[in-house]
């Protein structure tokens, strides 16, 4: 079972690149973030033509998450997180696919720090922690997948000193991520590559991709049940170099079938 995550940074403007990558990589399940489109503009027919069913939670101009699957129609289990009825951002969608609970998330960026956007990021992380704890209690295979907008360690940025005042690398953000891990989740990339610099995002500015000045923002957190099925993980870095590509690259893991 091959599961991928891809911050597409505007799905309709990059649909050609998405379809090309789907054809080449052939993932079974894909979590998408930053759709930047309203629900009625989601390109469901184009995806269905290449074999992917989809569920999505869109928002005009910002945010938006979706799950694609080659296993047929998707059993959606949740959209949004509890404990903030005033939060209108489309940042979380969840489904049960091929025996696995898949949570697709787009965590708030939080910049500038300090400020209300950073406070919102930390509150959102607390709400994610509460839901993650609930998922652990079910005893099912679970993966929380997506753009976390957190660089957990110094290995996850090309220049740590540059990001000391950035919400992506603030101690508060990293501590909240560590708390998730400590409660029973495994960072799949770090499980397989504990000491390597691995990036999933390269800014459009200053030839960041050409210089390999990257960040690791896109993560797979697996519960204990699913961790034992982890086989491999890869960043499709070359996709970031395609014309008119997202500033993120697709990332995927491969799991043993149950």
Automatic annotation (TrEMBL):
Site (Transition state stabilizer): 149
NCBIfam families in alphabetical order: exoDNase_III, xth
Transmembrane segments: none
The protein's name in its UniProt record: Exodeoxyribonuclease III
Record InterPro entries: AP_endonuc_1, AP_endonuclease_F1_BS, Endo/exonu/phosph_ase_sf, Endo/exonuclease/phosphatase, ExoIII-like
Site, Interaction with DNA substrate: residue positions: 248
Pfam families recorded: Exo_endo_phos
Annotated catalytic residues: 106, 147 (proton donor/acceptor), 248 (proton acceptor)
Site (Important for catalytic activity): 218
Gene Ontology MF: a single term: double-stranded DNA 3'-5' DNA exonuclease activity
Keyword Hydrolase: yes
Organism taxonomic ancestry: Bacteria, Pseudomonadati, Bacteroidota, Sphingobacteriia, Sphingobacteriales
Biological-process GO terms, alphabetical: DNA repair
Enzyme Commission no: 3.1.11.2
Family label: Belongs to the DNA repair enzymes AP/ExoA family.
Keywords: Hydrolase, Magnesium, Manganese, Metal-binding
Ranges of residues in domain Endonuclease/exonuclease/phosphatase: 4-248
UniProt enzyme class: hydrolase
Cofactor: Mg(2+); Mn(2+)
Binding sites annotated in the UniProt record for Mg(2+): 7, 34, 147, 149, 247-248
Cofactor: binding comment: Probably binds two magnesium or manganese ions per subunit.
PANTHER family in alphabetical order: EXODEOXYRIBONUCLEASE III (PTHR43250)
Species, as recorded: Mucilaginibacter corticis
């Amino acid at each position: 079972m091959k599961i991928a995550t891809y911050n597409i940074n505007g799905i309709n403007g990059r649909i050609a690149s998405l379809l090309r990558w789907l054809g080449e990589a052939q993932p079974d399940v894909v979590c998408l973030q930053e759709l930047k489109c309203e629900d009625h503009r989601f390109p469901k027919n184009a995806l269905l033509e290449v074999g992917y069913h989809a569920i999505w939670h869109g928002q005009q101009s910002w945010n938006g998450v979706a799950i694609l699957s080659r296993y047929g129609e998707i059993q959606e289990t949740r959209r949004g997180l509890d404990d903030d009825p005033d939060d209108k951002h489309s940042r979380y969608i969840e489904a049960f696919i091929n025996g696995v609970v898949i949570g697709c998330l787009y965590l708030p960026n939080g910049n500038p720090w300090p400020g209300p956007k950073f406070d919102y990021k930390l509150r959102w992380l607390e709400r994610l922690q509460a839901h993650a704890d609930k998922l652990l209690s079910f005893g099912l295979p679970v993966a929380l997948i997506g753009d976390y907008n957190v660089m957990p360690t110094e290995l996850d940025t090309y220049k740590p000193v540059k990001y000391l005042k950035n919400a992506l690398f603030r101690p508060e953000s990293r501590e909240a991520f560590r708390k998730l891990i400590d409660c029973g989740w495994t960072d799949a990339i770090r499980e397989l590559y504990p000491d390597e610099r691995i990036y999933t995002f390269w800014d459009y500015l200053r030839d960041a991709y050409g210089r390999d000045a990257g960040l690791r923002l896109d993560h797979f957190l697996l519960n204990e049940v699913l961790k034992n099925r982890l086989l491999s993980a890869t960043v499709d870095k070359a996709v970031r170099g395609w014309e008119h590509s997202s500033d993120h690259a697709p990332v995927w893991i491969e799991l043993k079938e149950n």
